[in-house]
Structure formats: C-alpha cells, structure tokens
Amino acid sequence: MNVPVKAGHQVRALDFRDASDVRRIEGFVADHKAGLFHRPAWLKAVEAGTGQRAAGFLSERLGVVTGWLPLTEVRSSLFGKALVSSGFGVGGGILAEATEAVRGLAAMAEQYAAGGGFGSIELRGGPIPGDWEVWSDRHCGFVRPLAMSDEAELHAIPRKARAEVRKGLGFGHRVTTGRGPRDLAAHYACYSESVRNLGTPVFPRSLFASMLEAFPDSSDILTIWQDETPFASVLSFYHAGAVMPFWGGGTFAARAARANELMYYELMLHARKAGMTRFDFGRSKTGSGPYAFKKNWGFAPEPLTYGAWTVPGAAARNIDPTDASYGRKIALWKKLPLPLANSIGPWIARGLA
C-alpha cells in the first residue's frame, strides 16, 4: 500500500522482513537523535514479548527517507483495537522532516486503522496533525543531568529524599547488576509484587526477556538484595547518553528497608560509570504519587504532548488507571494472591500497550 503525498513523495508500510529496509529506518532514527521507542528493534521486541504486532509507515522522497511512524497493533478483547506509537513506551510518534511527510504518515495511519478495524491511533510525542485531539496536561517527563561523583550525586538529591537514601545505605544491602536468568527472575519477583500492590496487572515476563535480548548492549537489571532475597529491582535502558529506569519496583519489605530509594541512587552511580550523562526518570501521571516522588528527588516535571485520532463512530480507548470506572477493579486486584495475579495479569496487560 503506497500513498503519494506530493510530487516525488510517497508513504508506504515498512517491511520488517526486509533487513535493508529496517536498517534504513534505524539509521534515520539515529541520524535524527530520536528516542528508543522509535527504533524498529523496540517494536519487534514488543511483538516477540506480547504478541502485539509491529507495524509502521515511512515517507520517502526520491528514495530518501523523510519520515517514520512506528506503530504497535494492539488487539485486546478487553480494551479493543488501537494503533499505538509506540507500544509499551512513553514516546514515539511521528518523526519527520517536513509538514507534508507528517500529514502523509497520519493519513496513511488513518486509512490503515479504518480498514483494519482499529478504533483509534495514539501518538506519544512528535508532531500532532492539526485535526487530531491533542493534550499536554496528563503526563510529565522527568530528566536531569547526572553529577560528577558519587558524593555529588548524593548531594544533588534534596534533603528529605537524601536522608532516605542514607538510611538505605546503612542497611548494607547487596547490589547486583546483570542480564542473566537470575537477574530476570529477581526483577520479575519484585516488579510483579509491586504492580499487584498498586492494583495493576503485570506485563508478561516474556516482554522483559525480549527487551534484554533486543538491546544486549544497552539494557540491564539492577537489584537490591537482603541476603538472598530480592527487595527491589529495575530494568533500565541506556540510550543517547541517558539511563532510563523503565520497569522497576519493590516488594512490601522494600519500604522499611529503603530499598527503592537505594536502587535509584545506585543506578545513578552505575550509569555514570557506564558513560551516561543524564538520568531519565520516565513519565508519570500529573499529580500522581510517582509524580510527587520524582519531584521530591529534585526532578522538574516537563509536560508531555500526546495526540489521538478516533475512527468516526468508534469509541476512544480508555486505559487510564485513574479513571473512576477502574476504581473498584483496582481495589479488587490489590487483594488477589500474587500467584493468581501473576497468572492472569499478563493476559490482561498485553492490551495495555
């Protein structure tokens, strides 16, 4: 399916089976210093780990790539069908050099959504077409530079949060960093308990394994241990000079042991030694508990601009956990035994891309 945009321009679907095509897009992303979630490798890892199909459209002019729209085809019996840029990420959206490329990519996505039974398209960042819904008040990102030494890093954390880190240091916890089966098992044990306690279904363990496989040189897991018991663990990515703690959490015991606070501080030190210069704390829902936590660590919130287009006559997808309609479900989920939550949670969470 090709769509002419302007004289000399066309938009077409990316063939993920064509290695040269994929390399061209990876190069386009790198040349434009775009985010991790624009990379075809991210989309394919999502597909391998969740079954949600990778897709995307590129615009070209005289054989040169001028734009790219990465997409995950989300299919869920509970949450419907949507095209998301990018699935399970906090960024993505259209990456383009000219207005005609933006409009052409959006038009192609609209056509594909309507023809494929997808109710909506969601763009997480990038230019948003003028006739789409757009908002900047629901999520914020948090990024700041890393300090030049361990001591300077500690003092860069505001006083109250720094006191919590010092308490964590005082417990003498063991810290490990790795990518092996034991690291993955420890991470899943901590993360799954953490999200269950928040009332959220856990993502499939296969998603985390796929991400580690897709980014062998730019991902790892840092874990805080009490003897042989993992208390807190985070899977992070390293991209364009920034460490991105992406999926992290702690057990109930981690709270008193200050393991979560120690985890992020130790990751800052680890990332600086790995050559990173920035700490990207990810996004949080505006006004939420995680939003306050990151502000308390000295990170300034920066509003994130997202956009969406809904097929005429279709209902917009709603996966906002703060929506009142989810309140009772979240309260019930928090009470589930962890083995049961881990059994049925991944099936549900595949639709929360």
TrEMBL record:
InterPro entries: Acyl_CoA_acyltransferase, BioF2-like_GNAT_dom, PEP-CTERM_FemAB-rel, PG_Glycine_Bridge_Synth. Gene3D superfamilies: 3.40.630.30. Residues 160-294 form the BioF2-like acetyltransferase domain. It comes from the Bacteria. It holds the Pfam family Acetyltransf_6. This is FemAB-related protein, PEP-CTERM system-associated. It comes from Erythrobacter dokdonensis DSW-74.
